Amino acid sequence: MGESTSRQPRPRRRVFGALGMATAVTAAFGPGAAAAASAAPVPGGPRPEEHTAPLTDPFFSYDRPADHGVVREDVTVPLRDGGRLAGQLYRPADASGRPAAGRFPGIVYEYTAYATSLEAFGTGASYFVRRGYNALVCQVRGSGTSPGTVDPFGPREQRDNHDVIEWLARHPGCTGRIGQMGVSYGGHTTLLAAVNRPPHLEAIIPMNAIHDWYENTIYRGGIYSARIRDWQRATAPDTLRTYAAHPRYDDFWRDRSVMSRWDRLAVPTLEINGWYDRYRDGMVKNYLARPDQVWLVSGPWEHGYPEGQYAGFGPGCYLAWWDHWLARNPRAPLPAARVTSYETPGPGAGRGWQQFDQWPPKGAHDLTLGLRADGTLATSPGPGADAAFDVNTGTTEPRENQQLRFTTAELRQDLVLAGDATAHIRAAFTAEDGNIAAVLYDQAPDGTTTRVTAGWLKASHRHGHTKLSPVAPGTTYDLDVHIWPTHYRVTAGHRLVLRVSSDDHPEIDSDAPPGRVTLRPGPHGSSLRLTVTRAPR
Predict the structure, then answer these.
(1) What's the pLDDT tens digit per position in 378-406?
(2) Separation of CA 417 from chain center
(3) Residues 532, 260, 326: CA angle, nearest 5 degrees
(4) In this predicted structure, what is the pLDDT of residue 397?
(5) Whole-number Å distance between alpha carbons of 66 and 11
(6) pLDDT of residue 401
(7) Whole-Å CA distances, 160 to 157, 200, 328
(8) Three-state DSSP class for 31?
(9) In angstroms, rounded to a whole number, what is the distance separating the alpha carbons of residues 397 and 61?
(10) Whose CA is closest to 119, among 133, 137, 107, 132?
């Protein structure tokens, strides 16, 4: 991305330099720093836990009785270019099983390439239909029985979505007030529908969705994501060619981006984000870009619908949202705060559900730690000796030679990470390019580690993704690696670990050229900026 788009919106906060930390930070970390961590990370990272404690905000416990049955109609949605899409329209039914008299608001429940069996979405859609909504599940062009070729989130698919919304609005059984919702693919299309501004779209609920298809999914920090290729082969094989043809950020990606049209995200938006989800960075950035339009709910779940992953979360909050915006019921509540976030990893460590007027929470501040040559993370930078690791040399070197680890002392009190982070890496490469992966871990007293969050950057993309910045071997460069946001409590007695390497498979390809990467620690050297809040005693 270019210079203008590489700067992400962030609230202004008090910044503490590496040499001038507040006493609260010194109390948390102690006077020294411990040796580098040696334990291997737990594969896969943290897993969402089920807890029975409900959210206390009435928005999340909202419900009302079902007044209708459900009748399903197989439909064909005509498109402006003469094409058509396959779908199923679920409508409120009367006691005889026929469509109920009257008109009802409409929900595009899923507009997705995954609806090969549309009935799979019927149960979820029926919840709303029984309470007085029309719900349409639609297969995007080229998926299921919709003719054509799948081009995920491309301009034509977006135009088709616009037509789907307006078709539902014109249905004789519809009031013309339309909402759209969906998870993953359906969440992406939901946000893209909103920035295209179809006249009858009044509110949306995207779940685990993008801000930018390039940054979130395909080229993370300019590095192709290995984990996406199996999805491409199964869902849209043509993209194996087209995505590889666009390694830098250009109009091809802008056409598939919410970020490029943030100013057009103008409808009320309820974002359902998972702190363990692969799209958490995009969901938070959408909120930061449009805080007056977006309500953000970030919970302890992975990719997919929260229901079934977290026992205290159900569809009632979605119903409240639709009742408020589509049915225009003044008794239907909105969330009590703009941001509802679950402080992970769960009771006993994280403090669970909290609500804030903004994100990062009021009082959050920057904490900067130096990456020291002795393998420690501390509030003072330490001496300026270099540290290095090898990359793809083709030898059977020990794993520890292919990464660097920097570790804090045992925390004297809890530390809450509440926002994004930046690994400022001053480095030189022996090759003409290189990758940096910065991964944060929580290390327990027994040495086991839990992956918390990560970020990645290709050295030639250090000034943005629109054009390459050459890398001269042996020259030292400043690389700011954006680390995805989290809401995570590192408890007293634990340590925070930063791993710096050139590999983080399968999040990124292992494609860094062979050679050595040398980090410059010490004064004015590499550092880690965290967004933290003071942990309650």
Answers:
(1) 998 888 789 999 998 766 555 667 999 99
(2) 16
(3) 85
(4) 58
(5) 43
(6) 78
(7) 5, 15, 27
(8) coil
(9) 55
(10) 137
Helices (H), 108-178: 122-129, 155-170
Residue 410 three-state SS? coil
The two structure tokens encoding residue 310: 């977290």
- Block residue for tokens 């999340």: 60
Rounded distance, CA 424 to CA 157, Å?
39
Tens-place pLDDT, residues 278-307: 999 999 999 999 999 999 999 999 999 998
17, pLDDT greater than 70: no
* Amino acid making up residue 422: T
- pLDDT, one tens digit per residue, over 31-78 is 333 332 322 233 333 343 444 345 789 999 999 999 999 999 999 999
3-class DSSP state for residue 216? Answer: helix
Alpha-carbon distance values, 257 to 168, 187, 448, 466 (Å): 25, 13, 39, 14
CA-to-CA distance for 184 and 201, rounded, in angstroms?
Answer: 20
Q: Measured between alpha carbons, how far is 511 from 254 in angstroms, rounded to an integer?
A: 25
- How many Å apart are CA 18 and CA 144, to the nearest integer? 55
The span from the CA of 470 to the CA of 222, in Å, is 14
Q: Cβ of 374: how many Cβ atoms within 10 Å? A: 15
Residue indicated by tokens 């994100």: 359
Mention every residue, 6+ apart, whose C-beta is less than 8 A from residue 393.
514, 515
